[in-house]
Amino acid sequence: MLVIDGHEVFTEMHELVDPAHTAVVVIDPQNDFCSEGGIFARGGKDMSAFPAAIAAAARLVDRARAAGCKVIFIQNQKLPDGKSTSPGWLRFMALHNKLDPGDADMCLVGSWGAEFVPGLQPEPSDIIVQKWRSSAFVGTNLDMILRVHRIRTVVCCGFVTQGCVESTARDAGFYDYYPVVVEDAIATHDRTLHEASLTVQRTRYDVVPSEVVIAEWEKRTPQLA
User: Fold this and answer.
1) SS3 221
2) Residue ranges of the Isochorismatase-like domain (predicted)?
3) Which residues are catalytic?
4) Does residue 160 have a cis peptide bond before it, meaning omega lies within 30 degrees of 0?
5) Were 185 and a residue from 19, 78, 139, 157 both cysteine, which residue would form a disulfide, CB within 3.0 to 4.6 Å?
6) Could you read off the pLDDT of 137-170 as tens digits, one per residue?
7) Residue ranges of domains in the chain, CATH in brackets
8) Residue 200 dihedral angles phi and psi, to the nearest 5°
């Protein structure tokens, strides 16, 4: 820990991920992004990185719950008939994701595509926050929930690396939380984009393997080891 401008600033991993003030935010583990048969897969995107990342995120979440961390699932949503979209957002979703315009209904409310993948599901003790744009902070109650629970560190896992994960991690920092990104518990459809995003994110905040975070929790709660 350092003292800068009269503030105590966390510098060590054990300080950052102390369960007393840490939330694990699981970003968009949904069928349209992660599953065969979802919109990404139907659009021909490479899904090979997702199974390992889902497994790593599931283990991270399991250990987080056991250590006493708050776990928050983020669920991307879209209202039917364009009620939550704009031309700018549709351009991003359809053109920049190289999807057929008919696939603009990604994560449509109530659809199978919007459901959480079988291998990574919330439990009753977890919180679900629904979002409408890439960042889990934009237009949601996530910041309020984090502050209610006196959270200082946001540990990010989920999908996709260069999109919703990076957007949420950046905003966590802008909202004055400590962002920690778990590099093996995130994935995207393009390895080049994944590595490029991680290169940028490492210049901004902590990007670490899941074992580094879990090891700190196990030190505090030896029964987890």
Assistant:
1) coil
2) 22-200
3) 28, 131, 164
4) yes
5) 157
6) 999 999 999 999 999 999 999 999 999 999 999 9
7) 2-224 (3.40.50.850)
8) -70, -45
